[in-house]
Amino acid sequence: MSGSFTPSENPVGYIQHHLTNLSIGDGFWTINVDTLFFSIILAVFLGWIAKKVGDNLNPEKPEGIQNFLETVVEFVEQQVKDTFAGYNPLIGPLALTIFLWIILLNTMDLIPVDLLPWLSSAVGIHYLKVVPTTDLSATFGMSFSVFALIVFYNIKIKGGLGYIKMFLFHPFAAHGTFAKIVLMPVNILMTTIEEIAKPLSMGLRLFGNMFAGELIFLLIALLPFWIQWTLGGMWAIFHILVISLQAFIFMLLTIVYLSIAHQEIEEH
Amino acid sequence: MNVTATLFGQALTFGVLVWFLTRYLWGPMTQMMQARAARIANGLEAAERSKHELELAKQHAADSLRAAKQQAAEVIAGANKQATVIIDQAKEQARIEGQRQLDVAVAEIEQEKSRAKQELRTEVTNLALATAEKILAREINPSVHGEYLDNMLKGL
User: Fold this and answer.
1) Over the stretch B55-101, which tens digit does the pLDDT of each residue have?
2) Amino acid B1: pLDDT
3) What is the pTM for the complete model shown?
4) Chain B residue with Cα closest to A58
5) Which of A248, B50, B111, B154 is the most exposed place for a label (fewest CB within 10 A)?
6) Alpha carbon distance B109, B105 (integer Å)
7) Domain regions of chain A by residue span
8) Would an 8 Å CB–CB cutoff place A40 in contact with chain B?
9) DSSP one-letter code for A57
């Protein structure tokens, strides 16, 4: 495949081409190289900035990025304080990482849709999906990591038996032994759905928003060039909101879910 | 658009990033911000305390000033009183001295008077003797009647 499409000639091909990952392997064991590449690059970038600021903290006269990061850290800390019942030193940095990393990953969406694929095709790479959060693997990678933490803290706080009891007697509580046994299958089903829905909804929400945003940029790119800047500009400005909002929602849900996981099981 | 093994790579990246940010950003920064907040609180507290101390010092200074003024007034009043006393004493001394000098003068005058009297007496006697001598020159021999005359002079 030549890799370069003129949008107006073959719109479907153009969009499909843009939505194809640069990948190695087959089936489940496919590795999306572009997703990993941009995620890791941005993670390294974020880590580099964090280390640079963290090593040169100036308590007297905070400047530049330190100022910005202090604001973000304080904001996240406040969210954790407001939402998270109990104390766990992991939650703050976890939420901060989610917030900043997702913002960076999402921001890739603001780079003109054809720029990086065009540059990469010039060096012989014909498929490139620039925004990692438009890849379900990326969003699920994060949301299932959070899910693993949810399960871990559920078991740590409630105990293995408590965790099982949560599935058996929740959400429908009864007083009689017979009623409890009758309600058990329903409870197991409901709680399982409830728990599985957490990472699925988090991952799908982020993916859906970013994918839709990317798709609209692609559709705008199909328009005649003289109108593109109006719609593209408007959508980009609106998309800044989506980028930060999705990062914030992902972060907040992480805090909320982990807070729930930290609560002792209530006796019905 | 399927979920693939990329997920594991993403999760791993995520985990490493969380660890890294905890270690190098969140930890130092929250510590620094806490320390700063504590320092600001301390500073404000110290400022409040020094304000209080300043208030106390001001009050103390005002008290000292008032006490000094009072003391000065007392000193002046005491000095005035003492001056009056000294003046009175001086007046008294002057009066006594004057009296003494007057007495001395009176005594001197008295002495002078008695000496003059004495002289006068001698003079008068001599005069009387001379007169009597002249009168009695012919009749009385001073050597004969001298004793008698001396006795008379003593009786004067």
Assistant:
1) 999 999 999 999 999 999 999 999 999 999 999 999 999 999 999 99
2) 58
3) 0.74
4) B32
5) B154
6) 6
7) 11-261
8) yes
9) -
Write the DSSP symbol of residue A110: G
Separation of CA A70 from chain center: 22
Confidence of residue A126 (pLDDT cuts 50, 70, 90): confident
For residue A171, cis peptide bond before it (omega within 30 degrees of 0): yes
Query: What six digits make up the tokens of A264?
Result: 């002792």
A53, A65 Cβ separation under 8 angstroms: yes
Mutant choice from B13, B39, B40 vs A, greatest count of A C-beta within 10 A: B13
Residues of A recognised as catalytic = 201, 205, 209
> What does the pLDDT look like over A136-195, one tens digit per residue?
888 999 999 999 999 999 999 888 888 888 888 878 887 888 888 888 888 899 999 999
Least confident range of A21-30, A208-217, A252-261, B141-150: B141-150
* pLDDT value for A3: 42
β partners of residue B59: none
How far is it, in rounded angstroms, from Cα A70 to Cα B29?
7
Q: Are A31 and B4 in contact (CB under 8 A)?
A: yes
Count the Cβ atoms, other than its own, within 10 Å of residue A143. 28
Between positions 23 and 52 of B, the ones with CB within 8 A of A are 24-30, 32-33, 35-36, 39
* Overall residue count recorded for chain A in this entry: 268
Side-chain half-sphere exposure of A9, counting CA atoms within 13 A: 3
Asked if B2 lies within 8 A of A53 by C-beta distance, the reply is no
Distance, CA of B78 to chain centre: 9
Q: Alpha-carbon torsion A228, A230, A236, A238, what sign?
A: negative
